[in-house]
Amino acid sequence: MFEIIRRDGLARIGKFTTKSGKTMETPALLPVVNPKIRTVEPRELYDRFGFRALITNSYIIRNTPKLKEEAQEKGLHELLDFPGVIMTDSGTFQSHMYGEVEVTNEEIVEFQKSIGTDIGTVLDIFTEPDWSHEKTKRSLETTLERTRQACDMKGDMMINGVVQGSVYTDLREYSASAMATMDVDVHPIGGVVPLMEQYRYAELVDVVMASKKGLNPSRPVHLFGCGHPMLLALATLMGCDLFDSASYALYARDDRLMDVTGTHRLQDMQSLDCNCPACRGISIEELRRMDKSKRSKLIAEHNLYQITEELATVRRYLREGRLWELAEIRCRSHPALLDGLRRLREYQDQMEFYDPISREGAVFYTGPESRNRPVYRRYLDRLGTRYVPPTRKAALFEDTQGKPYSRPYAEQFAKARRAGYTPIVVSPWGPVPAELDEMYPLAQSLFPSIPDAETETESERLTFLFMQKAGFETVIEGDKVPDDGTEEFDADKLRAKAVARYQFGNEAAEALFREPVELVTSRKTGKIRNVISDGEHVLSMRAGDGMYTLRMEGAKRIVSAVPAPHMRVAVSDDAVPFVSEGKNVFCQFVLSCDPEVRPMEEVIVTDKDDKPIATGRAFLIESEMRQMRKGMAVKVRSGSDDE
Amino acid sequence: MFEIIRRDGLARIGKFTTKSGKTMETPALLPVVNPKIRTVEPRELYDRFGFRALITNSYIIRNTPKLKEEAQEKGLHELLDFPGVIMTDSGTFQSHMYGEVEVTNEEIVEFQKSIGTDIGTVLDIFTEPDWSHEKTKRSLETTLERTRQACDMKGDMMINGVVQGSVYTDLREYSASAMATMDVDVHPIGGVVPLMEQYRYAELVDVVMASKKGLNPSRPVHLFGCGHPMLLALATLMGCDLFDSASYALYARDDRLMDVTGTHRLQDMQSLDCNCPACRGISIEELRRMDKSKRSKLIAEHNLYQITEELATVRRYLREGRLWELAEIRCRSHPALLDGLRRLREYQDQMEFYDPISREGAVFYTGPESRNRPVYRRYLDRLGTRYVPPTRKAALFEDTQGKPYSRPYAEQFAKARRAGYTPIVVSPWGPVPAELDEMYPLAQSLFPSIPDAETETESERLTFLFMQKAGFETVIEGDKVPDDGTEEFDADKLRAKAVARYQFGNEAAEALFREPVELVTSRKTGKIRNVISDGEHVLSMRAGDGMYTLRMEGAKRIVSAVPAPHMRVAVSDDAVPFVSEGKNVFCQFVLSCDPEVRPMEEVIVTDKDDKPIATGRAFLIESEMRQMRKGMAVKVRSGSDDE
């Protein structure tokens, strides 16, 4: 039903297939079509704007005799003249707006089935942000009960099981975990419109992150009512896949234009200057003079173009592994959005699980908020637990713009090592030991040369803590290193082992570096290429990110030295022959996976008895492999049969 | 020739008229047309893209016999088929690229005249960033000498007098000041292309700001070679009016696409998804498959659309007084751009002179860099010199999201005052005394509720310094104020006078608040509306920004109490009758102006004998009024004849 095609942390490009056999790519936005007022015709949404799905309201249709009759007779797709996926809402939002609705859950679910909806919605209870914890909890139970009922009734229709819980993170997680166990098909997060209307984006982040914690990763997550272009990057970054927008049309009727920087009232705007296909060539005066209905249509189209353009941008950054950057830029448009971005710091640990161990592009720093990214936390965590200092004396060097640091500092580092000092650079990442400086993300990152006070202070604090934790007994400034050192050292070997510890853990690194160790370096760049241990080629190093790929010989070493599940993905018997030949591992064949594995990390594929049969890179993490029904789990590099 | 229509600090929307009578609006970009390879036809640039000016190279035309002949015969405009403004370059850039050029300054200036160029360029010497100070200085003298020669020769042609000086700020300022005294018509800043190519944006900021210091504000400033959309907001913010771009075509030939986030190589791009009129509907695969010349044309058009769209955005933010915000967002796209933005902090004082005393929109905070804006410096300066604490005891309150602070804190502030304490809020602006909290920019600003470490630390430091400087003897936390105070106070009167001191200075405020003082407040909002002193209506307060407008009676008070030039703009005799009737003051009639006046500040217009004849708001500052030949200097509110 839902397959992850590309990912950047929690964000994902997915392929969603309905039971009716329609497919759509996510992240996607579903325009809301009011069945009574069609500002833009559904057919136009499909043909001209490229929307492959929309939402309409089954409650309104059911309450409008003419529409009801036509929908039940011809079906919803013909009623709206829309060939794509149609999702229907159930009347919940009407209850939020106007109080009670006059329909039961059973009736509205049955009605949605009867008109041929692709994805119907339970009549969930909208939990308002100002509700008490107790009242919210009580209403959740009703929503869960109704969801169970709907799952039993759904037949060929897919069903939305809506996560509610007001602003209470415990209730959001509870509600999400309960939904994860039920037979729902899409996970909407509901009850968030008031938060968005009131610019309470920090709380929106709390709600989404708490929900994500409990949800089943094999189903698309729909942030109900979120469709403003300024929010799409942040929401996608948090792992939302589906969005919808009624505001494109509602705002248009109200002469409000949306773009990635916010909402602008026509009366306040000083110029239009918009290049979108709807506005191009039209001046603000002309737009103001248009008759109301023509103007509303034009503004609705403008709003839709802003949405499609931003969604395309979000997808592009996601594919390039740079979605954090885009979200950080977009969230500068309003201080309340910046609050949302800053609140993400509280979820750094949760996000770190999903963050790829390496990316193709460089890490661009956009401001102190960039330090909230999980890539920072990961580095500091692994440095703290997996780094073993080669000496007890440290020499501290300043950050320079030339990277890797060991290039501009070649002589100084060598001098320090001769004197028995381990060179450490005090960088915006915190402390960077010379051995690690070619590895992602350290060499593959760019910071401004004029530092901000927060990053400077934090970098010094982290270095101080690291000195203590790593057990350095002497610390001096790099330019105070004595001239007359005579210690011998092998910089390549120090680097080779330090990177292996960082990537695979200390035990595995010991097994991989059984003496005698020979390093093969590139004649052109001098960089490490292969690690030969005891005559066996166990590791190769990628030039791009300074990290290792694991060879079958290396995999065997790790399996014999380090108990399962470390770095393992075990597959069922029927997959063994294929994977041994070098075919990728698919979710349905995974028996178990090391819960410490991160996306893009080197893994050892084994059979059910922990016999290594292949090496590769994990595309998913344990919780995903366990719950996804479709898609690649491990991209296999070489199977045991290849060697 | 050049008139400022709108402004936002150093940035300006201008109307530039050539000697040939063509007009164009600035900021504007001039596409560079290579007379031998026209990637996009000049006629298309005019008709389809709306460019009203272009640059071509007179040196290349002169060296190509066929073009030379045609240009001299029909004129440049017919040669290129371009009805707008044509600027020609002189061969200087060729000397930067290929060494010496075979033409003298006299020859190339004469040649440019002969082909009917609107704006010709001196054969200046391109100063490379790696040149020594001495070598640069020597070359400047040659450039200045050649510029003098060109000015003598120019006739009906306008002339570009290029500011050079490598990366030396003293030489840039020297060169700019010399150009300011000559009869040149446009002020290009040259020799910056290598800085931009090498992403040395902090130095670019140094060069532009040092040049701006010396230049004549009555002439447009052209940042030679700057045309990348990602730079336009920052460059306009620094007061550049004209830009040019050869890269739209050069990059296109090289399959590189520009947008506001940077330059993207077609081979690295994962998708196109561009809504610009050139790309719309075309996929990345289609673009890659196109034949070379068609693809180059399409990419060149894409690049031009990105430029025109960003220029429109820059103009919109400029008109809305929000250009700082846009520049701060754009500069997040690359850490080197962020360096440029951060370097602006060094020029806060220089920029403060041009920063309007009030804006229509609110100040949105985008990150710690926002504190570089001159609006911060202004507030702290005036607080330090013009604030008089009503008591010697201060009670400190935390920043809240509700503004003005005296609304959520109404009871606490009253309690503090009864106990003899002056309420001070520790805000992201630094300390904010309760008396000032309705005034721009304090109430008209938005910060995230989750503060960053730098702003928090700085805010505490500033508050500490202020406590000492203002002479507070006791400082306590707001929640420690004793309950039983009995001091009497008049909060409105404290506010009324504090704002007057802030706006007009202490001496003027004393004169305006001669007792008995009566305050007229709004029945609806309770806010101060009018100040009646000794029976005379001297001041009115605007609800929008909490600042005063000065009445004629107030103006007379100030003139008799505070010696000139405080707040004065003196006009010549021939303007007196008109201004007295309420007509605006134009530059050519200004005799002198208080050099402390900032844009949008209340001023008193006087005759040459310091007799007040009108009140109004300054649109320009002293240096501009003195040097501009055209345009409004003071927007007069009421003349003495009205009363």
Q: How would you describe the overall organization of this protein?
A:
2 copies of one chain form a homodimer. The two termini of chain A are 36 Å apart. Chain A has a 6-stranded parallel β-sheet with strand order 6-5-4-11-10-9. In chain A, strands 25-29-28-27-24-26 form a 6-stranded mixed β-sheet. A 4-stranded mixed β-sheet of chain A has the order 17-16-15-19. The radius of gyration of chain A is 28 Å and the shape is globular. Chain A is built from 25 helices and 29 strands. With 643 residues, chain A is α/β, with parallel strands linked by helices. Helix content of chain A is 39%, strand content 21%. Chains A and B meet through α14, α15, α16 and α20 of A and α14, α15, α16 and α20 of B.
Concise structural overview:
The structure is a homodimer of 643-residue chains. In chain A, 39% of the residues lie in helices and 21% in strands.
Record field, number of beta strands of chain A:
29
Specify Rg of chain A, calculated over alpha carbons.
28 Å
The helix content of chain A is 25-40%
Strand order of the largest sheet of chain A: 6-5-4-11-10-9
The termini of chain A sit apart by: 36 Å
Most extensive protein-chain contact, per-chain counts: A-B, 47 and 47 residues
Q: Name the quaternary structure.
A: homodimer
The overall average pLDDT of chain A, rounded, is 95
How does the major sheet of chain A shape up?
6 strands, parallel
The coarse silhouette of chain A is globular
Number of helices of chain A: 25
Which structural class do you get from the secondary structure elements of chain A?
alpha/beta
SS strand fraction of chain A:
15-25%
The stretches of 5 or more residues of chain A where confidence is low (pLDDT under 50) are none
